[in-house]
Fold each of these.
Amino acid sequence: MRASRLSLLGLCVALTSSVFAFEPLPLAQQGGVSQVMLTCTGCHGEALMGVAAAGFPRLAGLSADYLSKQLYDFKAGKRFNPYMQQFAAGLSDQDIQSVTRFFAALPTTQYARPSRASAAEDLGARLALRGAWERNIPECVSCHGPGGVGVGNTFPPLAGQPALYLVNQLRDWQKGVRRNDPNDLMGHIAKALNEEEIQAVSDYFAGLPVGGAR
């Protein structure tokens, strides 16, 4: 491991050790993935399923291409987070390819997959499943798939992501702090949402039940 990576590893451990236990991922070592990847467990949890209380997202099972784009966007300053920008700056192309492929192959929880035909009784469900077309807000599932499970390499999963993470991303799009999606689609949507709606739709996807319930 290069000295710069060791320094970066130490920095990430120091930033997170006061809140989260930092432990390596045995599977990463078995798979020969660069050890720089191990810093991710400090914020995103040992299973990389996220840490809800802190608003750190799950990485397990997300598309490798989507994750790669996010890391490159952090490196290029197109997406902003001081810790992630520092971390991504120390990664080589090979690191990014290896780490994101490993993340994508990790097992992850399966969530319910309500569709546009499912009942939508509260505000969060209505936005997720029906949208608010009178304000040009499409339903989330139209892009992110039934239950917000993610579609392809462009639309990531929403199901099971921490509500605080989703709230923070919508606020960032709303403020123009985050603007790394195609045609600023999420920026337009987020700007049309009020704070109650942002919280409601984030709670909805964070609270989807595990398994096949509708």
Amino acid sequence: MNHRKWLWMVVLLACWFPALLNPAHAQTYTALESMQIHANRATSSLLLYRGEGFQKAHLARMESDLKALADRVDSFPGARNDLNQLHQVLQTTLREGASFGRKEDDMPWGWPLQMSKALRDFLTAVRSQQGANVRAELPAKVEYLTVQYLSRAYVGSFETAREQPDTYLGQDERRLVPSIDEQLAALDGKSNVAIAKLKTRWEFLKVALEDMNSGNNSFNTASGRAFAPIMVDRHARSLSDQWMALAPD
């Protein structure tokens, strides 16, 4: 009898153990995902600040994004020293970008490359801590693609991580748009209104993102239409917010 009871306890613990681990795992993963989102958003806010006439609202939004990012990094128990150091580099680089004057000559010609590198290095360090679990990277992909779009609209091309062609950090709209399409196609929009709205927003947003024309050095859109950075930024943030609210499995 005692032997049977012991066996039942082993079975029950085996069933409960994954349930006990999953919340902690989900919390860790959400923190890493959130770091990627806020790092991209802070960069987009800086680009809007410089590109849209140095409006205080955009600078305030950048600081808000940086605070959200810092809160995530500071509260993440598994943060390695390299992650903390690269976070500081990103913060410093973005604030330096905000400090340059309004004239084109006020910003060193090589600074956009420094900005790209600071963001890429930080995102690479974050991704290195999430292991093989990349299934919830959709909002980070959308925000990263938005940074590329705003960069082309305001300061020139964004340098992706060419040494990482198989991660989203080394990709532009030519691979990221189909990748995001594939992830969204796997979701059931017929039985879930929230997912249906998410897909509708993406269909609207991807028209602009596909028009980015990253393969061309002329910095013109593929269609010849003007860039629409404010619209892209607004819809990208709304889409990633919607996705995070869904907390897909």
Amino acid sequence: MTNVTRVHKKVSTQLSHPWSAKADWLQSATGILLGLFLLLHMHFESSILLGKEAFYQVVQLLEGGMFSPSGHGFPLVTKVFSVFMLLVILHAALALRRFPAQLGQWRALRTHMKNINHKDTHAWFWQLVTGFILFFLVPAHLFTMIMNPEIGPHLSAERVYHDNAWLLYALLLPAVVIHAMIGLYRVALKWGLSSRRTALSNVAKMLITYLLCLGAASLITYLFIGSELGTPVQPFVPK
């Protein structure tokens, strides 16, 4: 097959499947938004490591406390943003196009991974597995935040410790970090943002390690704070 024939075949395939190309773009775009949100979200949450006062001020800033006469933020902001983050459902629906739906497809994938030791194929496999896990865990987390949007040093610690939400977060943390960082790595390669595969892979690995440590430290801190709170839990009052 000549180069011209290959080009014509590629173009005709793309023209015959215009939705597939748009779906790929949409999946990448929503994935980038969700990945960047995760990076910001985990750093905002980790402000609890600097103390209750620091976390309280971050919450008030994000919830628009500067626009409130009392100086307190608006929990409605958290609820609205949680509803917006249901964007993850669109991302998941687009990703399901490439999900192996039959047992034979899974066997073929495992055989391929065994016979051809390709690192990017293994990365895609773990993104697939974590994506499946997140399909159940993320809506549970968002539903909790929509129903009870109030956050703060004490209220968040109450959710983690007294309401046993740490069980959900302990599963959610590794799944979402691995999925998001591998996703950003693959998007960067796919859309030509960088061709330095090894360097990108190392950055993704470092980010995964860093975010897992950051998230685990924050979760443990919430557990310690929650264990010291009596019930009913009272909201944190700044000095």
